[in-house]
Amino acid sequence: MRLTTAGTVLLLAAVVPAVVVASSSATPAPTGAVTTASVRTTSAFPAAAVLPLAAGPVPTSWEGGHRVPVAPRWWPNGYSHASAAWNPAWPKPVEFSPTKKGRLSGLVIALDPGHDIGNGSHISAINKTYWVGLTKTCNTTGTATNAGYPEATYTFDVVARLRRLLVAQGATVVVTRDRNTTATYGPCVGARGALPSQEKAAFMVQVHGDGGPSTGRGFHVIAPAYYKGYTDDIYAGSAKLAAAMVSGMVSAGLPRSTYLSKTIQVRKDTGAINMSNVPTVTVETLNMRNAADAARAMSAAGRQKVATGLYAGILRYTGR
């Protein structure tokens, strides 16, 4: 997630021609389900270098995927202004019902897979600025591995794997976007932050992949700094959530960041966290520009391991 909007525009010149995610029309989606996504590659990268989306990310009705129970709203100009409806050009938020009873029964958890593959096709829209405790662009394209595997696709897959683990333990899981296609963009960061409290989630975990220096690898967690009027209500809870996520990731054998001095980065400039009313953290699960981490990102087994680490962190936070 590290690249700025300006930086990611340059990145897209290399990534978009190689990785184009489009909705599949082979099988109509059932009512309440979302559209299947597929990946095409071109000669810009060898076909083997960019892995297709796993079957895992696609929510279907039998897995409990359905529209969120209320129409989400957000604050494009901050809390003191009238709220706006969820933009129809954005992916839709989706809720997943428990598949079994378990240690997380009765708990609602929000997950936010970073970015959207369509952000690169909607540059003017994602560059529009809003007030989220600071002036911030709607979103960015995210980063990618050197082989062109996009962060947006990676995070969507990891979140799908994570929410399967959670619903199997009785949790209800709300995900901020139901697809990863070029037809949509966003949602904007402020809307992502506003969603969990509207859906009565206990907390939110944002899943990202960093675009750090290629010589460094590993994960880090972003937690909110104290910001009166914005994070003062979630500051303490988010700090506990951040510590739990670090513990969970380490327990799964995932390395801490080698290019940052602290695994938990306390920041005031993250729009989604600023606009959240429940404990929220961002987990930069690995560095996509590092060869070893990129190999993990592009491996189904690697993505499952990341999901397992996130799951372990959530279990530690809930104490269940």
Keywords for this structure?
320 residues; alpha/beta; Aminopeptidase; eight-stranded mixed beta sheet; two-stranded antiparallel sheet; 18% strand
Give structural notes.
The protein has helices spanning 5-15, 123-126, 151-167, 189-198, 235-251, 271-274, 291-297, 300-318; strands spanning 20-23, 37-40, 65-67, 73-74, 84-85, 94-96, 108-113, 129-131, 135-137, 172-175, 203-210, 220-224, 264-267, 280-287. It is α/β, with parallel strands linked by helices. The strands form four sheets. Strands 3-6-10-7-11-14-12-13 form an eight-stranded mixed β-sheet, sandwiched between helices. Strands 1-2 form a two-stranded antiparallel sheet. Helix 3 (151-167) crosses helix 8 and helix 5 (235-251) crosses helix 8. The protein is globular and about 45 Å long. The two termini are 30 Å apart. The relative contact order is 0.17.
CATH architecture: 3-Layer(aba) Sandwich
Mean pLDDT: 84
CATH C-level category: Alpha Beta
Order of helices and strands: HEEEEEEEHEEHEHEEHEHEHH
Helix percentage range: 25-40%
End-to-end Cα distance:
30 Å
Beta content? 15-25%
Q: What class, by secondary structure content?
A: alpha/beta
By CATH, the superfamily comes out as Zn-dependent exopeptidases
- Please list the strands of the largest sheet in the order they lie side by side: 3-6-10-7-11-14-12-13
Q: Largest sheet, if any?
A: 8 strands, mixed
Radius of gyration: 18 Å
Q: What is the overall silhouette? A: globular
Low-confidence stretches: 2-56
- Total count of strands: 14
In CATH, the topology is named: Aminopeptidase
Return the domain count.
1
